[in-house]
Amino acid sequence: MFQASNSAADTHAVQKSPIRRGARVVLRSKPRILRGLTWNLLGYVALIAMTFDVKEIILATYWAGRVDWSWLLTGTLSGLFVLICAIVLTNAFSRGTPRPVILAVALVLSCTVALLVSAWILDVRITSFGQFFFQFRVNALEWGMVIAAYYFIERSERRAAGLRKAELERHRLEAQMIETHLQVMQSQVEPHFLFNTLAHIQRLYQTDPQRARSMLDSFCSYLRSALPQMRAGGSTLGKEVELARAYLDTHRIRMGRRLRLNVAIPDDLRAASFPPMMLLSLVENAIKHGLNPLREGGSIAIAGASDDAMLRVSVADTGAGLSKVELRGGDGVGLSNIRSRLATLYGARAQLALRDNAPHGVIATIEVPLQTDSSATADIGPSSSQIAEHSRALGAVA
After folding, report:
1. Among 119, 116, 93, which Cα is nearest to 104's?
2. Last residue in a domain, options 117, 147, 171
3. How far apart are the first and last CA of the chain?
4. Tens digit of pLDDT for each residue in 322-341?
5. Of 142, 171, 200, which residue constitutes the final position of a domain?
């Protein structure tokens, strides 16, 4: 007996399962004409309809002395028909038809159909146009206020979304302008560095052609590895130090013992993010304004340190020193370029400071926020070991 009962229950479950699956498919499917209809909207409309119905039932009971339950069906149908009709008409005539016109047509049509359907369900005859118009007026006024509130809320949300989109577009354009500005300023540094080096090679050809050819061959090998890194959007302190070292090695061929170099960069700071070409500009200024004017030359020391989440990289030379004007503000293209790029990249969080070195010379310090950028440490152009290899080759020629 129990087995027969269980088998009957299983058979009933099997028979119901296709129906349940079909019901779930119908409920989950969303035709294109009903795009925008959600369960949340249906719940809100049902809640508003219940509020309106309770209010009309209370008023009808007060004035007529009896409970009129017809308002419950009429109000609920009006709300559901208004919602469905508004969504259908919006999806069908959204192009070229103003939104208020669509909502007004949906209101009139829905309230009319709701009154006729409720009268048919309740088997109530509408004896006069005045009776029909009274109920239509009540429903249309109530749901018209709901539609008007929904329309203005929807329009304000669309405007807010448009403003957010415009703000995002403005930020994107500003970012593009900043990136273009940085690229222009960086492009001012690269030819300056290249032309100065080629000018030194040209002068060396006049005195020692063999050394000049060796220097030019090594310099071309260095450029093949270094130029892609110069164009990179980000770099690390380790890569920039190797670039500066290779640049100084080319000048050692020309200056010989007049140029001495000391690099003191902690290993844990070599992976820190650092703007490209800035360190090279400071080194070039130290050569041009510091060591070149002196017959005996001098030394250049590159050092790095971190403190309070800030990275400080300094280039100290024992040369002739900068003028008072340069110490106060820096009218040179290289220094002004560095200051502009720092302001664009970091705002007030970064700076370039110049001060006198003892007994003579200048110490130039760049201070930027300390951060290790994974994209900067990625394989952008050559590695530091490749640049160092060409740097050692240049030093061997000297």
Report:
1. 93
2. 171
3. 106
4. 664 354 444 456 788 788 88
5. 171
What is the percent of the chain with per-residue pLDDT over 70, rounded to a whole number?
71
Q: Which two tokens stand for residue 69?
A: 């339950």
The Cα 398–Cα 387 span in angstroms is 17
Residue range 70-95, pLDDT digits in tens: 667 777 788 888 888 888 888 787 77
Amino acid letter, residue 362: V
pLDDT of residue 329: 46
Sign of the torsion angle spanned by Cα atoms 64, 67, 70, 76: positive
Is the domain of 38 the same as that of 83? yes
Higher-confidence residue of 270 and 335: namely: 270
Candidates 222, 289, 236; CA nearest to 265 is 236
Q: Token pair 């050569």 is at which residue?
A: 287
Claim to verify: residue 34 and residue 117 sit in the same structural domain: yes
Is 299 inside any structural domain? yes
User: 310 is in which domain, residue-wise?
Assistant: 208-397
Domain count for the chain = 2
- Per the model's pLDDT, the better-predicted residue between 178 and 303 turns out to be 303
- 240 and 165 in a common domain: no
Q: What are φ and ψ of residue 123, in 5° steps?
A: 55, 50
The per-type count for the chain, helices as H runs and strands as E runs, is 11, 5
375 shares a domain with 289:
yes
